[in-house]
Specification:
CATH topology: Beta-Lactamase
Helix content: 40-55%
CATH class: Alpha Beta
Number of strands: 6
Distance between the termini: 54 Å
Mean pLDDT: 83
Low-confidence stretches: 1-10, 12-17
Number of helices: 2
CATH architecture: 2-Layer Sandwich
Order of helices and strands: HEEEHEEE
Length: 127
């Protein structure tokens, strides 16, 4: 009986850890999208680079960038984008995301850059 309880506790801790990871991934994508809004970007590009994930906030011909170096987080953020935009079998999709209490329609395009998948997230007008 004691070993069953220990197994249950391990499963609860594992689930908590997974939930915490999922929460971290959601928070990271939320932060990326909020930064895009704050700096007036009309799109955001995410591209795998040597040091990690390059995130570039584009407004017209100008861009501002940052690098995410946590490789596990990078993979999970990319998977979240693919899942939310339903890109499993296509290169374009849409996801609805709430930022500052307003819903945004974000058009997501997956494309190839130097043999790697890259993503362009175009922010629509808030509703």
């Amino acid at each position: 009986m004691g070993s069953i309880r220990l197994t249950e506790l391990r499963e609860e801790v594992f689930m908590l850890t997974n939930n915490d990871r999922e929460k971290t991934v959601l928070q990271k994508l939320q932060q990326i999208l909020e930064t895009a809004i704050d700096c007036g970007a009309d799109s955001t590009e995410l591209e795998i680079a040597d040091g990690g994930l390059e995130v570039t906030y584009m407004s017209g011909n100008m861009g501002y960038g940052e690098l995410i170096s946590d490789h596990e987080l990078i993979g999970r953020v990319i998977c979240l984008i693919i899942d939310r935009a339903k890109l499993e079998n296509k290169s374009r999709g849409v996801m609805i995301w709430t930022l500052s209490g307003r819903q945004y329609r974000i058009t997501v395009k997956e494309y190839e850059s130097f043999g790697e998948s890259a993503f362009r997230l175009k922010l629509g007008e808030p509703t």
